[in-house]
Amino acid sequence: MSAVRGKVAVVTGAGSGIGRQLSFELARRGARLAVSDVDEGGLAGTAERARALGAEVHAARLDVADREAVVAHAGAVADHFGVVHQLYNNAGVAGGSGVLDSEWVDYDRILGVNLMGVVHGTKAFLPHLIASGDGHVVNVSSLNGVLAQASISAYSASKFAVRGFTESLRSEMLMTRHPVQVTVVHPGGVRTNIANAAMAQARAEGRLTPDDERRTRMYNDKLLRMPPEQAAKIVVDGVEAGRSRVLVGNDARIADLLVRLLPSAAPRIAAALERRVSR
Question: 155 catalytic, yes or no?
Answer without folding.
Answer: yes
